[in-house]
Amino acid sequence: MESPDASRAVIGAPAWADAVAEVVLAATAAAGKGRRLVAASPDFEAWPWDRAELTSVLVPWLKRPGRSLVLLSGDGAAWLSRCPRFETWRRDWMHAIAIRSVAEDEGGRVPEFVAAEGGPWAWLHERDPWRGMAGTSPREAARLLQSIDASLQRSGDAGAVKVLGL
Q: Which of 59, 68, 110, 115 has a 20 to 30 A CA-CA distance from 146?
């Protein structure tokens, strides 16, 4: 088991997608852990939101009381068009999913990370080449979550659900 302050390097876009998936899987499997899972990215490029295993583990986790998934992006919800499975799935879970957007001129560059309250986390600090870190430290997860508090406060709703029919 990883020690509280241990972390590992993440190198390459495929490794980043796998690290994000690992964080989501670990966070949703941890009974009694954090109630909030936060993901931030300028555009969610190379994120694995369309993987079936992610939506399948998010369902029972979101059914628990007080759980929420917060997605902060710099490009509104344009990234949703690249994730049709996630886009379709989220319609039934909009009450527990907050998709937010912040313009660069309002809050600067959106950092790129995923973190759960109490850990685990993954943070991408460079895209060219793709390099980041992943770990389970609750302290690092809290630092990442606090780093976007102001941006979340300035953000607006994004990714409204379009309901068709009568």
A: 59
3-state DSSP call for residue 7?
strand
Question: pLDDT for 4-32, tens place per residue?
Answer: 567 999 999 999 999 999 999 999 987 65
Residue 166 lies in a domain: no
Total number of domains constituting the chain: 1
CATH number for 99: 3.30.870
Tell whether 111 is covered by a domain.
no
- Give the residue numbers spanning the domain of 64: 7-105+118-157
Whole-structure pTM value: 0.89
Is 50 within 8 Å of 83 (Cβ atoms)?
yes
